[in-house]
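Record minuted for completeness.

…
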Amino acid sequence: MAKTRDEVTGLLLAGGRARRMDGRDKGLLALRGRPMAAWVLDQLAQQTRSVLISANRNAGSYADLGHEVIADRDAGFLGPLAGLATGLDRAETPWVVTAPCDSPFLAADYVGRLYDVALNSGSKVAVAHDGHRLQPVFSLVNVSCRSDLEIFLKDGGRKIDRWLDRHVWQSVDFSDRPDMFLNVNTPLELQNIEEMLNSGEF
C-alpha cells in the first residue's frame, strides 16, 4: 500500500452547481455534524500521497478542510472532466484518483484496487463498476492522459464515457461495496443517509 500511496494524488470533485440541492454546495452540507467532503477527504488522504480539491466556488470553506483547492481553468461549470484536467496538470505523481464530494463512504481499499488493476493490465485508466453499471467519477487516471483530455475539452467534449472510449481502460469490480456509490443529490437523500448512519447500517 505504501508504494501505491506514493504514486497517486487524490482529487475530490466538488466543482458542480448542485441544481437539485437548490444551489447549495453539496460537499459542504453537514453529515453528522461534518461537511460531506470531509468524509471523502479522510479516506483519500489515507490512501494517497496528497489530495487536491476541485471546487469552483466556496474555495475558502474547502481550504479550511486542509487541502489545496484548485478551480477549473475555464469558467462555466464544464463538468468533472474539467476538474480532472486541472488535477492532472497540478499532480506531482504519475496517477490521479477521483472521488465525488457527495459520496461519503469511500472504501478503505479504493485506491489500491484501482491501482492494481491498472498496473496489471497496462491500462492508463481504471474505472469503478458497482456490479450494475460503470461509475466513471470513481477513476484512476495516468497523468499521460492530460494532453488528450485537454484536446477533448477544447473540442467541446464533456461526457466521460466518450472520453474513455479514446483510451484503453479497465473496469474494476466494487460490487461488494455498493455503499461506496451512495450519493446525495437532494435534501431527502441527505436525510436518508443520516438516518441510515443513526440506525447503525454503516
